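[audit] Reproducing an earlier prediction to check determinism. Same input, same settings, fresh worker. If the tokens differ from the archived copy the diff job will pick it up downstream; this log only records the rerun itself.
[audit] input (587 residues):
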Amino acid sequence: MAQQRHAIPPPLKTEEDYIPYPSVHEVLGREGPFPLILLPQFGGYWIEGTNHQLSGAPDSPPTPVPGTRVKLEGNHTAKIYRKHFLGKEHFNYYSLDPVLGHLVFSLKYDEQEHLHLLLRTRARTLHDVVPISCLAEFPNVVQMAKLVCEDVNVDRFYPVLYPKASRLILAFDEHVLSNHFKFGVIYQKLGQTSEEELFGTTEESPAFTEFLDVLGQRVQLRDFKGFRGGLDVTHGQTGSESVYCHFRDKEIMFHVSTKLPYTEGDAQQLQRKRHIGNDIVAIVFQDENTPFVPDMIASNFLHAFVVVQLEQGGTQGTLYKVSVTARDDVPFFGPPLPDPAVFRKGPEFQEFLLTKLINAEYACYRAEKFAKLEERTRAALLETLHEELQARSQAMLGLGPDDERPDNGGAAPGFFESFKSLLVPGSRRGRRGSAIGLGSVEEALLVPGKSPSRRRPGPLGSRRSSAIGIESIQEAPAGRDGSAAADGSSSTHSSPESHRIPDRAEKPEPPDFSRSSSSASSFGSAAEEPGEPGRESRSPSGSHRDAFTDTPWLDDPPGTPPGRRVPDPPCPEIKIQLEQPLHNPGS
């Protein structure tokens, strides 16, 4: 029983493991100097640059050596396709792995007999360079993909045939790269220890103004043409000016707390927090020695802070002490701070500071919150790229989106659809084909001086013509024999030469044009154009019959024998003049 019991999970924190970080108020109650940054009570952040004590010659504070270029970090894998593949002979493929998901694979064989392999999955992009001399034989595409990622489990890769595929692939690879950045700038005065106090400052000290000049140049927001970083450049609702910088082909807009609109009566100053709270990295400038605690500002986006404090250098000029803090899940980013972390004002300090800010944002993207968001975005974009490459490649082969089948032969679906429309029962062509199978419609309905294909336009024209044509074929033999038909209501047989159409809802009747219950003639009478007078005539048996009144296929009954005329009707109506049809021995 004791083995079946579930172990009680250990407590999250014990008194021995708890680090009693002092609060900012406790620290301010002690003697200075105070550190630039204090960790929150429950931790969750790391700090870089805690030593600011100058040692050695006071005239030479440690600062980046003039002429040295600090390195910008970032996603260098995203630049590989542009650097090694774009504009050079290479091949692109796509496939779908049951575990890895959508795959887009690029390979290039260079003059040094190296294979450059670039495999994109929904989780990451893998790159490798493999010398051909290390391989026993030249691999196929699946084997090449396994050289980059052993987890690939597909039977084949499909070649990309779209000429502009490189543009689509390049756009996917570089979607993580950006040349626009926005950073918050918070002014912390002496003794300010809360968010409301930080955002409630309206005036700027000369030291803070001087520091803003180090970051960039002041610009008027109205009609500003550069990167605005979410600020209003039309109506001035986010202030009249800001600080902007163009650094290494990148545009940086700073959200300065004192330059954003101040709202009277709003303790939280939401107009200011709305911009700075949505930034990922922020600078905190301290006039005097007051520690900054990262959790002073409640934000789900702010992950890293660069704290700069003025150090009066006297004859050495303006000096700045720098410390950096970030959340625990943010990896370390360069350039590393010197020891001690003290800088002299100048272009080297500006370059170091801006590089540190940009690298901080790139590092924050790898934190858990942003990494999950990036993974979902990447998976959606890769699926879109895969579908686009597949559709474009099939279109180049003349295939539809779902027609990549070996039995299709690559023919366009339009041809098969057109061919099947000739065979589908119920279509216009299908009905005409049925009539042709029973006898030639053109021969049965041929009238001198009339075209058999001429029809009157109307919503029921095609259906009406088909019905008339079929009935005329059935009744043509009786007209050739010249026998008088009996009344349709009492007749129980039809001519042996007539053919019955399946699913035809009419009663068996003699092959005569004059019928009182013919569905074809009644339909023809009902489908007449409004305003056309109907005509009645009598059959030899004395029964009334409906005559075809100006049908689109014939004017005279084709079954009337030569020389025989239909009796004149008793009513004063237009008489029908019958003409002798053309003699056709095969009809």
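[audit] rerun output stored. Observation attached for the diff report: The CA atoms of residues 228 and 511 lie 88 Å apart.
[audit] end
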